Amino acid sequence: MFCVKSTIGPDDPRARMAMLARKIQAEHDSVDATLQSITDSATAMVPGAAHAGITLVTGRHRVESRAPTSPIPRKLDELQEQLGQGPCVQAVSAHETVDAPDLATDTRWPQFAAAATALGVGSMLSFQLYTDANNLGALNLYGATPHAFDAAAHDTAEALATHAAIALLGAQQQQQWRSALATRDLIGQAKGMLMERYNITAVQAFGLLTQLSQEANTKLIDIAHTLVDLGSDHQQ
């Protein structure tokens, strides 16, 4: 029986990418932990990346700054939302990778470029985070000097963005599942209280919750939460 010894050392980019993928997979049940792993790894793995951050799409036109490795990405995300322009906004809205090799001379986003330069950012790379059916946001890398990102940095960052998009989608789905489970449990508690108090069936109890929700113009989960809280107070 023959064994082939791997020639990939711990400093090889392929080995580091594999380690990152395993780390992200282990933390995929937490969106915040996933995002922080992505940005921390970006500054560690991508040559020239002095700062990193993620811009998430939280509404039709609203962006949210997440997991910045320093205050600079958050400041520039806030500025881009105010101005409606910049590399991150363009990467998300235009579904493309945006390269800004020299912000001091870039004429695409004059107000943003001037502010970024004043903060000590000389260049930027923004990669849209996406899967086949989900536009999630952008991974943004910030260089301290113009032309901070060479071809190798582009390749490493693009591979990282692909891993990041998949891990982020998994984390978001896991969080949505936990939220849905908690909602179901809370509505179940409220139904049980109504069934016991009024001697009605589960179907009747759910109908009563629905009617209360409609009459109060309040979400069903909020009605259930109020009833459970009131029931807990009465038991104390």
TrEMBL record:
It comes from the Bacteria. Keywords: Kinase, Transcription, Transcription regulation, Transferase. Residues 167-228 form the ANTAR domain. InterPro entries: ANTAR, CheY-like_superfamily, GAF, GAF-like_dom_sf, GAF_ANTAR, WH-like_DNA-bd_sf. GO terms for molecular function: kinase activity; RNA binding. Pfam families: ANTAR, GAF_2. Gene3D superfamilies: 3.30.450.40, Winged helix-like DNA-binding domain superfamily/Winged helix DNA-binding domain. This is GAF and ANTAR domain-containing protein. The lineage of its organism: Bacteria, Bacillati, Actinomycetota, Actinomycetes, Mycobacteriales.
